[in-house]
Amino acid sequence: MKSLYSAVATAKGGRNGHVQSDNRVLDLEVRAPKALGGANDNYTNPEQLFAAGYSACFDSALNLVIKNEKIKAGETSVTAKVTIGQLDNGGYGLAVELQANIPGVTREEAQSLIEKAHQVCPYSNATRGNIEVKLIVTNS
Questions:
Q1: Buried b (16+ CB within 10 A) or exposed e, 74-105
Q2: Long-range contacts: 104-111, Cβ < 8 Å, 24+?
Q3: Has residue 140 got a pLDDT over 80?
Q4: Looking at residue 37, which CATH number applies to its domain?
Q5: Tally: H helices and E strands in the chain
């Protein structure tokens, strides 16, 4: 792989700690959510951070596909729902549902576009074969 950019962040304290990027733009306290034994839902957590990264990356991949195919579409949006659960072996795993809205195209066109974006997106390529990823078109 030809390197284009590297992001750097450091975590201290795990799910009940602090994360910070090397440039200090990302500087957050993280806590386990209430559903995982945390006191409340007042802080971000690793699943939210993963959902934010995946949705932003996938939306960029989707817009690249739309541009390359010279399709006229409105402003897209992608919502990522990241679920954590226990695996049969006692470990933990993730599942992702990506909900994409592409105004100005048919449902069929939107489905084709998100499937193509799923082949381009670095997050999709990194997780392929490791976690379940559902692609959902939310166009009405």
A1: eebebebebeeeeeeeeeeebebebbbbbeeb
A2: 104/72, 104/73, 104/74, 105/71, 105/73, 105/139, 106/139, 107/137, 107/139, 109/71, 110/137, 110/139, 111/135, 111/137
A3: no
A4: 2.20.25.10
A5: 3, 6
- Mark whether 116 and 127 lie in a shared domain: yes
Amino acid at 21: S
Shared domain check, 52 and 32: no
Residues 67 and 92 in one domain: yes
pTM reported for the whole predicted model: 0.95
**Average of per-residue pLDDT across 34-62:** 97
Q: How many domains does the chain have?
A: 2
**Cα–chain-centroid distance for residue 86?**
20
How far apart CA 30 and CA 28 sit, in angstroms, is 6
Tell me the residue range of the domain where 21 lies. Answer: 1-44
Could you tell me the two tokens for 24? 């200090």
Residue 26 tokens read as 């990302």
pLDDT band at 58, cuts 50/70/90?
Answer: very high
Q: Are residues 16 and 85 in the same domain?
A: no
Q: Both tokens of residue 28?
A: 């957050």
